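hey so u asked for the seq, here:
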Amino acid sequence: MASIVGTYARAFADVVMRQVLTKTPDGARMKSHLDPDRALRELYGIESLLTQSDSLRRVLENPSIPGDRKRAVLDAITARLGTTRQVRNFVAVVTDHRRLPLFGEILKQLEQELNDRQEIADAQVSSARQLSAPEKQMLEAEITTMTGKKSVRARYEQDPSLLGGAVVQVGSTIYDGSVRGQLERIRQQLVEI
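ran it, structure tokens below
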């Protein structure tokens, strides 16, 4: 299933990141592409609807309901939500190919694929206290340097058990700069002596 999920994620990432030449009213040419953040927001919005409405999910997953009826339901939903044509088409393809049960996994893989292509590192930061804006900025600059990415999208949370410092997780890599982590390393060194 992982290859199916990856195939759909990569294909839609190609659509999102494709550069399109368009003409402005004054005749100038401009490159544009679908905003990745907007596409993800719209897709997660649709995923949320599918999670909240069992009847909607059952209709879209039911093989006995014709594809044109499913697309009509999808058109009504996407029109009300104001989603882009590309997002609507992607959901239609996933529905038509009976991959809707994999939709959540596809979205996670898509988000990772888009982050990789834009050179964005997703980071989860836990700190003992609320960090100020300058501290967050300095920490994000350090994460950018450590990961070699162009930018960082960080989510912050407080964890008083850390005592001080911060723990940063980027993918499966954890950078532990907490006082609790330092005390644990000292404890390990003492045990080994």
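The chain has two domains: 2-115, 120-192. Residues 2-115 form one domain.
lmk if thats what u needed
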